[in-house]
Amino acid sequence: MTVRLSRRGLISAIGAGGGGLLLAGCDRINANPGVRKLLAAGNDLTFRAQRLVTDRAALATEYGAADMSPVFRTNGNTLPSSLAYQAHAAAGFADWRLIIDGLVEQPLALSLAQIRALPRRTQITRHDCVEGWSAIGQWTGLPLGLLLKAARLSPRARYIVFHCADDFGGVPYYESVDLIDAFHPQTILAWGMNGHPLSVPHGAPLRLRVERQLGYKQAKYVMRVEAVASLSDIGAGKGGYWEDAAGYQWYAGI
Amino acid sequence: MASIPVEESPPSAPEPRPLIYRQRLSTRIWHWVNALAVIVMLMSGLMIFNAHPMLYWGQHGANHDWAWFAIGAGHVRIGSLVLPTFGLLGVKEGMGFPLAFPSWMTIPSHYDLAGAREWHFALAWLLVAPGLIYWAWSFANGHVRHDLAPSRHELRPASLWRDIKDHARLRFHGGEEARRYNPLQKLSYLAVLFVLLPLLVLTGLTMSPQIDAAWPWLLGLFGGRPSARSIHFICAMLIGIFIVIHILMVLLAGPVNGLRSMITGWYRLPPEREEEA
To answer: What is the ipTM of this complex?
Structure first.
């Protein structure tokens, strides 16, 4: 069957229906599972391409003191609602312990004093929020790689999961990194910021710094470090609170 | 692109002017692939911008720093100049905060930063991969040299000024002159192909913390991530302006002829313009 369309008829038809159809069509395309799969494949390609062309050991730029943000804004939770956490905070985290468990041969429970006595790294780095702002601050903490070596990571471990004291609507925050970032020299569990002990709004007692990824990876209020073989059994399985709750990419190096 | 059967000019028209083969296959394919990539990236980019509708300059930039550009409720601020938006930008749409760019301009058409980032980064492959091939191909087959590079004569201020006046009066070249792009066309296509698109890609890469670690020279080149983000936004706006003018020119100069040449390659030379010397 052939439908003959005059030029004028075609243009007016497009004009009349086009606007509304376009918007509804965009929503339909956006929700289409095949399209979602294609987009996910594109983002997976970006992750792989970045890992391919960038040096795994490349260090994030470290800035001078003059480049630091005069005010480093807070984001996300600024005071965990957990009563147990608040009691620890009130006591200066004196009886608090960081748990290291999962696929490790030597599970550990370390006090804040013990962690501070271990080797430290201080770095002035840029914090990039997924929303688009950037702040520069100084972080001091224990290199995560040292901790994982002390706990004797099992060869089956593939990811390191950070369980946090804060929550969103009762769902606890968590994040995860792979072993490339876990053993990166700038990946630290920070207990100091800008020359002071880490404050509660910025994630006391410990905040993860993964300097080559976006802000939502920089988990605050870290209570437990767990080594796992797969992320599928943690939370909703996507490797982090925002990944599960809002579809953010697990790989936040972009 | 499916081509649409369109009725040709009525038989009573004077003898048909010659069809010339104006657009190579590589140009036609790249044009449409790139149009898709650029439009989706522009619309998803507006959604990403909505997450933090402020721009900064330098190494750091967040709420406590001075933003040289911001879109707020019903206004746009550039430096200290505050302009009204007449309900177009910075409008509350049911969310608790005003959307810098309204939802009809964005992909997805509701506030979804994660979704917009997926679109933006997936489509970036469609921008960069065909773009690089087209670049290389256009140098190899002489497209840049023969069709895009303006001649020394065309670059003279007097001839540029004449072309600007012609465009302003909507006097489009006809006859033999219309075989080639006019000087402003050449310059704008060169600017998009060799200035705006590369700048957009490089500043986009500079916003990736992983790429910054691997290629810190990008931060040096643009003077910091917030600066790169500002340049990215400015170039995106310029691309948006280019698209509007480009479509307007196609509509004014003959949309059917223009579309046919970008779909099939064949372009009917417009009649000679009556010249007033």
So the answer is: 0.90
